[in-house]
Specification:
This protein is α+β, with helices and mostly antiparallel strands. 51% of the residues lie in helices and 12% in strands. It contains 12 helices and 9 strands. It has a 4-stranded antiparallel β-sheet, covered by helices on one side. Strands 1-4-5 form a 3-stranded mixed β-sheet. The longest helix is centred in the last third of the chain and has 37 residues. The termini are far apart. The chain binds flavin-adenine dinucleotide (FAD). Flavin-adenine dinucleotide (FAD) binds next to strand 1, strand 3, helix 11 and helix 12. The site of flavin-adenine dinucleotide has 21 residues, from strand 1, strand 3, helix 11 and helix 12.
Amino acid sequence: MAVETAAFTEQTDIQRDITEMVRQFVDEQIIPNAEHYDHEDSFPEPIVEQMKELGLFGVTIPEEYGGMGLDLTTYAMIVEELSRGWISISGVVNTHFIGSYLLMKFGTEEQKDHFLPKMATGEIRAAFSLSEPEVGSDVQGIKATAKKADDGAWELNGQKMWVTNGLGSGVVFVLMKSDPKAEPPYKGMTCFITEKEPWKDVNEGDFAGLSVPPKIKKMGYKGVESTELVYDGYRCPPERILGGEEAGLGEGFIQMMDALEVGRVNVAARGVGIAQRALELALRYSQERKTFGKPIAQHQAIQFKLADMATQVEAARLLTRKAARMKDAGARSDLEAGMAKLLASEVGKFCVEESFRIHGGYGYSKEYEIERLYRDAPLLLIGEGTSEIQRMVIGKKLLQRHKI
Ligand SMILES: Cc1cc2nc3c(=O)[nH]c(=O)nc-3n(C[C@H](O)[C@H](O)[C@H](O)COP(=O)(O)OP(=O)(O)OC[C@H]3O[C@@H](n4cnc5c(N)ncnc54)[C@H](O)[C@@H]3O)c2cc1C
């Protein structure tokens, strides 16, 4: 049961049709099966196959490459629906979406022709890799290197961490230090498009030198794998530098930060989706469970919780859509994307915790969906920049825009 918290949703006909289609898919295919894949921590292959058939890997990829050519706003609406079902499913498409954004914005014609048609169908899926064992927030501190060999190829070495879709992806957009002496360091960083064999832990042949250690065991966000990646003499041809060697060398940091801006809208949409689901579960449970002779929903303290949850979901949704619409309109939206990510991820955690409380002891039982949401929600506070980092971004942008 999807609960409409607002009748006025401000959607175009296409947006309404596609979100209704995805909502139905989520209700029929994702929600009933999420518990199984979460419990087994196994990749939800049948669900992902159906998503390919629905075209969900190519939502923002232009039609000329076989995608739907839709905007960030519509994509955010889809992500909200998918996350309402299970945030791991949105994790399967998230890094893929960032990879396609990087190609569409910065890729050469050859790179677009080579990757986008296969990415639009989901035949190959993309991962996105900045983090390392010792570096997360402070991206300029990465240590993995790229060195040009005598034959013109680039040799990549170093360890990456927390790569979502690290094993199942066929292509990884990875940030490397190509000029260790550059000052400031970000000017010496390059994004390499590294191809690999999906689901293979040790790559051979053209992709030799890239291995994937066993997936990291996590408290939630199961089903979609998070892995390390070890580059050990991996050879990357110069034409696989994002944007080409001439234009792309030393541009990686700026390209990746640009992609994170749309990534933040995407994480915000995930926060709205999980918060919405927590509210739905709370609304249902509170009308079923009775204490002191009446449904707990009739106790004012519970109604206040529901009211706060619904209000915050709505605020987070509006801010997320505003950030997406600004980006689609070509306006600067770094501040709004940071605000949306900060608010929606915190709202996600807040609503899940309130819903958990409303479920009483049963919230602690694996028989109830809220138990999974409780393990899944905290990821959103961390991924694509923690809440502390969002506040830093917001503070900096505010001062830039209001300099006296
Ligand atoms: C499940 C999962 C999936 C992920 N997927 C990906 C992926 O696909 N690709 C990828 O590249 N990365 C991925 N990440 C990594 C993620 O982006 C980082 O974990 C995140 O950026 C935080 O970095 P960190 O863990 O190194 O924390 P740190 O940077 O070590 O921060 C630790 C704490 O210090 C705070 N802090 C840091 N600097 C400051 C400061 N200047 N002022 C105040 N507080 C500060 C942080 O907010 C945090 O609370 C994933 C992480 C997880 C958990």
